[in-house]
Amino acid sequence: MLATSTTFQLLTAAVPTGNHKRQAAGVPSFVLSYAPKVWLQSQDPYFPSDIGAQLAHTKPEVNFNVVNGAPNPLTLDNLASLNGLGGSNVYLTSVDDVTKSPAWLQGVRPDSNGKTNGARSCAVIVNDHGSGNVDAYYMYFYTFNQGNTVFGQEIGDHVGDWEHNMIRFKNGIPQAIW
């Protein structure tokens, strides 16, 4: 398997938006300087995705019943309101038959500069532990993750998937990568 030479820019949404209580004023420059490049396998039909676009194709349910009073359309700005409508029992399910491979499952093909134009497919979460110790989590969202074939059966397919890397820094210098 050969990896494509096209990478996508990680920091399309480096600083989270919305009602985040622990949101910092900015991301330390070393977190941006050492941000990993992600190489996509050239034959993979699924690309990074926009979680907001995924929400447009889902509905909240509890026990296989649509949640009454849920916002429609569901967006990143109103997603937290589901906590009052079923809490930890609420889950999102597709409004489309995913076995028919709707186009939105494919994600957004990065352009020649590696950008997923029109999609916020990544986020960076920075956890400053103090004393110069910082963990940076580089998160990548995929609408669909195809599982592996084991003994002739495909297993592990799932809709909605966060992948990530983490770099631990000490005084701005990478110490470990996970």
Descriptive account of the structure:
The chain is mainly beta. The chain contains two helices and eleven strands. The longest helix is centred in the first third of the chain and has 5 residues, at 29-33.
Number of strands: 11
Q: What is the share of helical residues?
A: under 10%
Low-confidence stretches: 1-22
Q: What is the SS-derived class?
A: mainly beta
Radius of gyration: 18 Å
Number of helices, counting only DSSP H or I runs of 4 residues or more:
2
Straight-line N-to-C gap: 23 Å
The gross shape turns out to be: globular
Spell the H/E element sequence: EHEHEEEEEEEEE
Strand content of the residues, in percent?
35-45%
Mean pLDDT: 83
Strand line-up across the major sheet: 6-7-10-11
Give the biggest beta sheet.
4 strands, antiparallel
What keywords describe this structure?
2 helices; three-stranded antiparallel beta sheet; 178 residues; single chain; four-stranded antiparallel beta sheet
How are the SSEs placed, and which strands pair?
Layout: E1 3-8, H1 29-33, E2 38-41, H2 51-55, E3 58-62, E4 65-66, E5 91-94, E6 122-130, E7 133-145, E8 148-150, E9 153-155, E10 158-170, E11 173-177
Entry summary:
With 178 residues, this protein is mainly beta. It is built from two helices and eleven strands. A four-stranded antiparallel sheet has the order 6-7-10-11, with no helix packed on it. The protein has a three-stranded antiparallel sheet with strand order 4-3-5, with no helix packed on it. It has a two-stranded antiparallel ribbon with strand order 1-2.
